[in-house]
Each structure stands twice: as C-alpha cells, then as structure tokens.
C-alpha cells in the first residue's frame, strides 16, 4: 500500500511541476521519457533550449532535495545525452538540468540549473 501511495504522490507532484512550467510559458516535450540509461521525469522546451527536470517529493523541500543522489544525477546526464542525440543540434543543443522540489503541501520550489552547483 505504501508503495502505491508514494507512486501516486510522485505522479501528482510531476503533474503539478509540469503545470508550473507550462504556466511559465514553457512546453512539456516529454513526461517520464525513458532511454537506455534511465528515465527523465519531465523534459520541457523554452524556445530552442531543452530543460531536463528531476522531480523530488517529500515532507519538506529540504527532505526532497536529500533524495537526489550523485548516482541519479549521472543516470539523468546519460539519459539526457540520449535525448539530445535526437535533436537537430545534437549535443550542442542549449540545455540545463532543473530540480523541482515538492513538499507535502504541494508547494513547488524549482532549482534552475541545479546540477551546475
């Protein structure tokens, strides 16, 4: 039962984050995009730029941030490279990696270009 609740909470968090990006004028190019290297929660477009978004949901934003591991970041990098291979500019496509933190109240904190920090 606990796994099902976590799954549905994660889906709801991803949907809320997608709405936040769309409300900011960005389009969602893919949800739960899966490559050979792994899955990317959301992929958005901001003009010619591609934004890879990892959504983390927990009781607080701080707890959600703690769930992101170096191993996950590496997996997301590799999956993003697979996605970019299909873009007209390939690996030269302007892109960034955001982390969207969602707390138990549904509040969203977006850390733009989070992997660069």
Automatic annotation (TrEMBL):
One of its GO terms (molecular function) is nucleic acid binding. Signal peptide: none annotated. InterPro entries: Restrct_endonuc-II-like (IPR011335), tRNA_endonuc-like_dom_sf (IPR011856), UPF0102_YraN-like (IPR003509). Coiled coil: none annotated. It comes from the Bacteria. Pfam families: UPF0102. PANTHER family: UPF0102 PROTEIN YRAN. Belongs to the UPF0102 family. HAMAP family: UPF0102. NCBIfam families: PRK14676.1 (NF011269). This is UPF0102 protein KM031_03680. The lineage of its organism: Bacteria, Pseudomonadati, Pseudomonadota, Alphaproteobacteria, Rhodobacterales.
């Amino acid at each position: 039962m606990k796994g099902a609740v976590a799954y549905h909470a994660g889906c709801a968090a991803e949907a809320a984050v997608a709405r936040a990006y769309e409300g900011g004028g960005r389009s969602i190019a893919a949800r739960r995009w899966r490559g050979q290297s792994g899955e990317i929660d959301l992929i958005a477009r901001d003009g010619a730029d591609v934004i890879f978004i990892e959504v983390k949901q927990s009781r607080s934003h701080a707890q959600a941030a703690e769930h992101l591991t170096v191993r996950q970041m590496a997996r997301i990098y590799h999956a993003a490279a697979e996605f970019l291979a299909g873009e007209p500019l390939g690996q030269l496509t302007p892109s960034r990696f955001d982390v969207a933190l969602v707390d138990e109240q549904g509040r969203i904190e977006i850390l733009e270009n989070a992997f660069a920090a």
